[in-house]
Design a protein that fits this description.
Keywords: Membrane, Transmembrane, Transmembrane helix. Pfam families: DUF898. InterPro entries: DUF898. The protein has 12 helices and 11 strands. By secondary structure, the protein is an alpha+beta fold. The chain has a domain of about 250 residues. The chain has an 11-stranded antiparallel sheet with strand order 1-11-10-9-8-7-6-5-4-3-2. β7 and β8 form a beta hairpin.
């Protein structure tokens, strides 16, 4: 059993249900197929709007305000740019290489624009979110840190992960109130080392118990027809060990990090957040969801999505530092007409899933 949320924490509440969501999901899927993916832009909006509208805290819910047209325009721009890039690369390889280098510097700008768009298109109790991150911060976070992480053989992954979360959270605001995450490297490295320890211990025990050999696996992958039975056994054991060792490690890391981040994030006005998810519960939900979805040929995917949303909402808390009515009123007055005008300026989604 997981620990209770801190005293005074108001749990989030997801009120959606699988039957209702299935009706929306199946229409989204069929129309996206019939329109060769064009309707998927509207499907994305309907999906976000459903899950936002059905997520409540303190009796107030979230909302999503983008339109399918905005999403579609952004996607068409990205697709057009990719096509032009491919043509230039095929005709003038040197120019294509220069453009590729240029894209490395455009990428941080795209990330910032995408995060601004997604923030401005989201609201809580009619108060719009905002994002104030800079291109320079994005360049450091999404280009410099990943390169350094790769050069250190990913032993500094916790540093990268914390940088990404700080960039996202600390540059977001609700109305004019800023979010702030203050978490040291300790919790990130603790989660990282616990996950690695699980992989090592379970992997070693698994190798001893099953007799798995990496040499046999390598030979089976290189020449599976030489001994089909042995190849199938080696490959089967590899995937068994992978799911037993690596999959739980992912959820161990996610659970520990989620709790550390939420429990150390505040919102101006004396408000705070809390989280008490556990790795076993997350793993159980993920595995059972996957089994049910696969064996129902994905028809139970809406049920799995609703089930996970309910769990995460129930294990996430908001700790108000005062009256929510006063806070919301203050932020609505601070936003005013400027918020609506600014939304019009941020009229398209550049297509990144940020």
């Amino acid at each position: 059993m997981s620990e209770s949320l801190p005293q005074g924490a108001k749990p989030f509440d997801f009120t959606g249900n699988a039957k209702e969501w299935f009706g929306i999901w199946i229409v989204n899927l069929l129309l996206s197929i019939v329109t060769i993916g064009i309707y998927s832009a509207w499907a994305k909006v309907r999906t976000k709007k459903y899950f936002y509208n059905h997520t409540y805290v303190e009796g107030r819910n979230f909302d999503y305000h983008a339109t399918g047209k905005q999403i579609l325009i952004g996607r068409l721009i990205v697709i057009g740019a990719v096509i032009v890039f491919q043509i230039i690369t095929a005709v003038l390889p040197i120019l294509g290489l220069l453009l590729l280098i240029g894209l490395l510097f455009i990428f941080p700008w795209l990330i910032v624009r995408s995060m601004i768009f997604n923030a401005r298109m989201s609201s809580f109790s009619n108060v719009r979110f905002g994002f104030v991150g800079t291109v320079g911060q994005a360049f450091l976070t999404f280009l410099v840190y990943p390169i350094l992480t790769a050069l250190t053989l990913y032993t500094t992954f916790p540093i990268l992960d914390r940088a990404v979360k700080r960039f996202s959270i600390n540059n977001h605001k609700l109305g004019q109130a800023r979010f702030n995450m203050e978490v040291g490297l300790g919790p990130f490295y603790k989660a990282f080392l616990v996950a690695i320890a699980w992989i090592i211990v379970v992997g070693l025990v698994g190798v001893v118990v099953t007799g798995f050999s990496f040499m046999d696996f390598a030979m089976a992958m290189e020449n599976p027809d030489a001994a089909p039975g042995e190849a199938a056994k080696a490959i089967g054991l590899f995937y068994l060990l992978f799911f037993i060792a690596f999959l739980p490690a992912v959820f161990i890391y996610q659970a520990l990090i989620r709790n550390a981040v939420y429990n150390n994030t505040t919102l101006e006005g004396g408000h705070a957040f809390a989280s008490n998810v556990t790795a076993p519960q997350l793993l159980w939900l993920a595995v059972t969801n996957m089994i049910v979805v696969v064996f129902t040929l994905f028809l139970m995917l809406p049920w799995a999505q609703v089930r996970m949303a309910r769990y995460l909402a129930a294990h996430t808390g908001f700790i108000p530092g005062g009256s929510m009515d006063d806070f919301v009123t203050q932020q609505q007055e601070a936003g005013g007409a400027f918020g609506d005008a600014y939304t019009d300026l941020e009229g398209i989604d550049v297509g990144l899933p940020i």
